[in-house]
Design a protein that fits this description.
By secondary structure, the protein is mainly β. The protein contains no helices and eleven strands.
Length: 123
């Protein structure tokens, strides 16, 4: 499975961005796909994950209510709509396979990931 994220940029606090992830390879429909971010000197954080079976979305508490994940398996695309962005959302965002656990209260980074895209929120 290959993944490639795009759509990052510079935005003011309160603004919006839409990230895109192209998913290609074999049996991509079988994989849950998610977004992870890493800010300088911070650990990687799972942002959102969308289940491969039923499309159920999962979000970290830090983005719940502001970010929306969606996917189109036919097109091999996953998107992350980010609204009401905050300075603390600044990070490199990557799309990757993911695994929901604990009834969806959390999700793990999977085996496949692509290069990230920089999101900078600043006035």
């Amino acid at each position: 499975v290959q993944l490639q994220a795009s759509g990052g940029g510079l935005v003011q606090p309160g603004g919006s961005l839409r990230l895109s992830c192209v998913v290609s390879g074999s049996h991509t429909d079988y994989y849950s796909i998610g977004w992870f971010r890493q800010a300088p000197e911070k650990e990687r954080e799972g942002v959102s994950c969308i289940d491969s079976l039923d499309g159920t979305p999962y979000y970290s508490d830090s983005v719940k209510g502001r970010f929306t994940i969606s996917r189109n398996n036919t097109k091999g695309m996953v998107w992350l709509q980010m609204n009401n962005l905050k300075v603390e959302d600044t990070a490199v965002y990557s799309c990757a396979t993911c695994h929901p656990i604990d009834s969806g209260s959390s999700f793990l980074h999977g085996d496949y990931s692509g290069q990230g895209t920089q999101v900078t929120v600043s006035s």
